[in-house]
């Protein structure tokens, strides 16, 4: 009788503990199978480029980006880059990392995102502290706006200096890529063909600056919205178009009510899929 009582109490205690266990995220591979953080880092370390997709306002993803960068830095020499910095602010970013200007000056001369301090400053400071290059890969937003209003053709009107901050013209573009097709459909045709073109010129430019700054025996970690590399499109497509031998790891993020069971519809979205609860707090 005593043994049965002990067994019963153990079961009750275990159930309570399980109910209280609320993980902030779960990691899955492209096939929807659970994968450990350690194995993800090991696989990433063997590639040339990591496209670390994110939801811009998700704190868990920003924390994982920092931790993964820190751990990969113990295994490989790194180069960092991000969508959140525009190519014409590269000098300012360099000056901050090398200590020529302080954070206040960087905020004054560069177009920092509103969540820079909480979400991206830790990565930039990690580069500064470890003497790593940090590449501003994105097209200046005013040029993307021009494409949205007038198509790729308007880029020909830029000065030679301005063209240095975008992918070489003419911009390669496959309008049949599912991501661009969905973008147009989701907007109900608003923006016409120029909406996905504005997205494509960002993807092309980020891919261009990754390839321009990649170095042999170094791992390039790039932080971008997951929609820029989901389903092996976007930046991934441009990288592979110009260098088919490049080894690339992709990361995506999805939100689910139950993160312990992977939704099959999200298979093959990326090599590593971070599932976070829909109730996760946001940074903005």
List keywords for this structure.
globular; Rossmann fold; 11 helices; 284 residues; 17% strand
Describe what this molecule looks like in 3D.
With 284 residues, the protein is an alpha/beta fold. It is globular. Helices cover 43% and strands 17% of the residues. The termini are far apart. The longest helix has 20 residues, at 194-213. The protein has a single domain, classed as Rossmann fold (3-Layer(aba) Sandwich). It contains eleven helices and seven strands.
Uncertain spans? 5-19
Please state the CA-atom Rg, rounded to the nearest Å.
Answer: 21 Å
Mean pLDDT: 92
CATH class: Alpha Beta
Shape: globular
CATH topology: Rossmann fold
Strand order in the sheet with the most strands: 1-7-6-2-5-3-4
In the CATH hierarchy, what is the architecture at level 2?
3-Layer(aba) Sandwich
For the secondary structure, the number of strands is: 7
Distance between the termini: 56 Å
Which percent range fits the helix content? 40-55%
Spell out the helices and strands N to C. Answer: HEHEHEHHHEHHHHEHEE
Number of helices: 11
Strand coverage percent: 15-25%
- The tally of structural domains comes to 1
What structural category do the secondary elements indicate?
alpha/beta
The main β sheet shows up as: 7 strands, mixed
């Amino acid at each position: 009788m005593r043994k049965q009582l002990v067994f019963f109490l153990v079961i009750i205690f275990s159930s309570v503990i399980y109910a209280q266990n609320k993980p902030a995220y779960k990691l899955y591979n492209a096939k929807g199978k659970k994968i450990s953080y350690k194995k993800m880092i090991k696989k990433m370390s063997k590639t040339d480029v990591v496209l670390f997709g994110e939801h811009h306002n998700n704190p868990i993803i920003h924390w994982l980006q920092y931790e993964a960068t820190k751990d990969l830095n113990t295994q490989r020499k790194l180069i960092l880059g991000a969508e959140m910095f525009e190519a014409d602010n590269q000098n300012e970013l360099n000056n901050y990392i090398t200590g020529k200007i302080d954070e206040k000056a960087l905020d004054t001369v560069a177009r920092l995102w509103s969540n820079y301090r909480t979400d991206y400053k830790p990565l930039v400071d990690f580069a500064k502290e470890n003497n790593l290059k940090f590449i501003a890969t994105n097209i200046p937003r005013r040029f993307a706006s021009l494409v949205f209003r007038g198509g790729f053709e308007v880029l020909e009107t830029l000065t030679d200096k301005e063209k240095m901050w975008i992918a070489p013209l003419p911009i390669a573009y496959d309008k049949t890529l599912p991501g661009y097709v969905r973008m147009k459909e989701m907007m109900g045709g608003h923006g016409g063909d120029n909406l996905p073109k504005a997205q494509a010129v960002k993807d092309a430019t980020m891919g261009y600056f990754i390839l321009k700054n990649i170095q042999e025996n170094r791992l390039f970690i790039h932080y971008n919205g997951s929609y820029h590399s989901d389903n092996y499109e976007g930046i991934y497509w441009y990288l592979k178009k110009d260098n088919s031998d490049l080894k690339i790891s992709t990361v995506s993020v999805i939100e689910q009510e139950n993160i312990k069971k992977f939704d099959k519809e999200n298979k093959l979205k990326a090599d590593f899929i971070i599932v976070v609860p829909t109730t996760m707090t946001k940074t903005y």
